[in-house]
Amino acid sequence: METAPPDPVPASLVVVRHPLVQHKLAILRDRGTPTKIFKELVDEIAMLMAYEATADLALDEVAVETPLERTVGHRVAGKKLTLVPILRAGLGMVEGILRLVPAARVGHIGLYRDHDTLEPVDYYFKVPGDAAERDFFVLDPMLATGGSAVSAVASLKRAGATRIKFLCLVAAPAGARRLADAHPDVTIYCASLDRELNAQGYILPGLGDAGDRLFGTR
Ligand code: PRP
Ligand code: URA
Is the CB of 88 under 6 A from ligand 1? Predict the structure, then answer.
């Protein structure tokens, strides 16, 4: 099936093409993949994507005493990275990233897409108070129309955040464009930029309803 989108790719979009990510994504897309495996794959892909998305974290030098001598090592600088899953499907990406960055803080943004208008409806917001000093990763497996992502990033910015990345698994061209236009400072990481949205706002070829597949609520 054709997955390449026709539109020009926004400059702020990074497609993580690592073979393991692509292998796992193909299993994730499969309609026959059961909830347990789906959950494990979202977790694993999120961790691999976070490896890419943390590649530019600032480092401080730190003195280390090895068993043999004193040397200089490095540690991640500044306040702890903060993960912000968009409820509910974004929750599936948290644990995998925490295995990579165990000290990360976790905020939450509650949003759901109105079934008729496809516009996001806010219901919860909680992030650490010192937002201006932190790096944020907003997590949501699906970037479809982009409404949820634009709203989540705007809420974070109102709370003072200035350094924000958006990590998703599958993006639609329209959603990537909308997020890039609204927040050009936010780098978007995805495992695939898919072809298009259908009339109901689902990504094609996509993987279906991520929240339902993660939590078995279909
Ligand atoms: C899904 C998905 C995103 C949103 C993407 O959530 O997890 O949050 O849709 O669509 P958009 O880009 O068009 O805004 P949904 O609203 O189904 O809520 P859920 O995670 O609670 O199932
Ligand atoms: N939300 C999903 O879970 N899947 C889509 O394809 C679009 C929005």
Answer: yes
